[in-house]
């Protein structure tokens, strides 16, 4: 199902459907104000008639996803983690917020099909965590998140070697948080973590790095303002991490980059409107960072932008995923495409899979099964 009604410019959208659960990752960010869109920006924010909305208890296509089911496609979800694992040559998807349940299932995508893995141990089910692939140590790194919906956050560190998840016990660690940014800095061979939210305290603005054994807090001379629910990815062409937008009693519109020592604010001539939880990844085929979607009070974005290290430029592809936020978003170097999975949109929590080839979006046709059985995320106290 695709949203039908699109408005020119920023537009407004009615607040209903799955928006309330989406805000749980930013539970502290109250009294938010919306920044004005830059002149000439034609972002897609939609107003959708209630008759066009699939109830939140249904998955993509209106098919029920009962608690405890398994399928050949991951359940619809938002605020999970998705990264490309170079050692496995597959994309890894973990956890997130499903329909009335927190998840801790692990899946891989090989370019054509999703496969659910059954590791002997896994992090507890959660959403809003940070996840990045540590290429130097050939493992996925996961930190924090929320397993109760309270916004208080976790501060545990886990690594995944392609077979099993292992809890790590570093001597130093960032404090509990959710809705943080996390990306791998390939030039410095460190995972970088910034910001996030820890209820009932204000949003955070600290910078940490992970070296495979321990976390270390850095104290750069300049830094983005404290924020949560933003996006971060590594720009391999310019050897810098890019950070965009987020929330802190409003939707921010600034762009920052990290060089391993300091944060630098960029000053592009044009920029996407402020938002929370867009998808962002570096497209190595085009040497540009790609941004899609996001959330603003009143609606979801469905726009596509690219960052070339100096400026943002909006693209207008012939086809596109429906408006959404909090989706899985990562680059697949084997297929030379950006992969998008799921997210939260007007239809509820989605489980569709899309690819960006540098010119347009196209949807993968993935078979969906609905067999009953025990799911690995099943433990007491996790339903919403």
Major sheet size, sense and barrel closure:
5 strands, antiparallel
Oligomer: single chain
According to CATH, the homologous superfamily is Kelch-type beta propeller
User: Helices and strands: which structural class?
Assistant: mainly beta
**What is the tally of beta strands?**
27
Spans where pLDDT lies below 50 across 5 or more residues: 1-24, 26-70, 368-384
Write the element-wise H/E pattern from the N-terminal end onward: HEEEEEEEEEEEEEEEEEEEEEEEEEEE
Q: Helix amount, in percent?
A: under 10%
Mean pLDDT metric: 82
Q: In whole angstroms, how far apart are the ends?
A: 26 Å
Query: Percent of residues in beta strands?
Result: 35-45%
- State the name of the first-level CATH class: Mainly Beta
Q: How many helical stretches? A: 1
Which architecture does the CATH hierarchy give at level 2?
Answer: 6 Propeller
What is the CATH topology descriptor?
Neuraminidase
**Total domain modules:** 1
| Rg over C-alpha atoms, rounded to the nearest angstrom | 19 Å
Basic shape: globular
Written description of the protein model:
This protein has 384 residues and is mainly beta. The chain has a single domain, classed as Kelch-type beta propeller (Neuraminidase), CATH 2.120.10. Helices cover 1% and strands 39% of the residues. Strands 22, 23, 24, 25 and 26 form a 5-stranded antiparallel beta sheet that branches. A 4-stranded antiparallel beta sheet has the order 2-3-4-5, with no helix packed on it. A hairpin with a 4-residue loop joins strand 10 and strand 11. The protein is globular. 49% of the residues are buried. The N terminus and C terminus are likely disordered.
């Amino acid at each position: 199902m695709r949203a039908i009604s699109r408005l020119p410019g920023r537009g407004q959208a009615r607040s209903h459907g799955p928006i309330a659960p989406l805000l749980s990752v930013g539970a502290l960010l109250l009294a938010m104000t919306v920044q004005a869109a830059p002149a000439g920006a034609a972002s897609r924010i939609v107003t959708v008639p209630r008759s066009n909305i699939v109830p939140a208890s249904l998955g993509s296509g209106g098919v029920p996803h009962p608690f405890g089911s398994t399928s050949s496609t991951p359940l619809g979800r938002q605020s999970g983690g998705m990264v490309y694992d170079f050692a496995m040559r597959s994309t890894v998807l973990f956890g997130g917020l499903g329909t009335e349940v927190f998840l801790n299932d692990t899946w891989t995508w090989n370019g054509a099909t999703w496969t659910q893995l059954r590791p002997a141990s896994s992090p507890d089910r959660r959403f809003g965590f940070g996840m990045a692939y540590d290429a130097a140590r050939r493992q996925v790194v996961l930190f924090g998140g929320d397993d109760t919906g309270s916004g208080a956050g976790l501060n545990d560190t886990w690594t995944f070697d392609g077979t099993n998840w292992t809890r790590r016990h570093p001597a130093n660690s960032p404090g509990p948080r959710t809705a943080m940014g996390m990306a791998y800095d390939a030039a410095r061979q460190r995972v970088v973590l910034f910001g996030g939210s820890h209820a009932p305290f204000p949003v955070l603005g600290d910078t940490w790095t992970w070296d495979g054994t321990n976390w270390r807090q850095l104290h750069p001379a300049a830094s983005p303002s404290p924020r949560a629910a933003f996006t971060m990815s590594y720009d391999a062409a310019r050897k810098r991490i890019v950070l965009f937008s987020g929330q802190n009693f409003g939707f921010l519109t600034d762009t920052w980059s990290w060089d391993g020592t300091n944060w630098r604010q960029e000053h592009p001539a044009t920029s996407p409107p402020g938002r929370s939880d867009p998808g962002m990844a570096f497209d190595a085929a085009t040497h540009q960072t790609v941004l899609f979607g996001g959330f603003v009070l009143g609606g979801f974005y469905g726009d596509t932008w690219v960052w070339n290290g100096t400026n943002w430029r909006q693209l207008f592809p012939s086809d596109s995923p429906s408006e959404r936020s909090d989706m899985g978003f990562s680059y697949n170097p084997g297929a030379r495409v950006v992969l998008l999975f799921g997210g939260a949109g007007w239809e509820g929590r989605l489980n569709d899979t899309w690819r960006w080839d540098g010119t347009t979006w196209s949807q993968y046709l993935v078979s969906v099964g609905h067999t009953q059985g025990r799911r690995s995320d099943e433990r007491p106290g996790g339903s919403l």
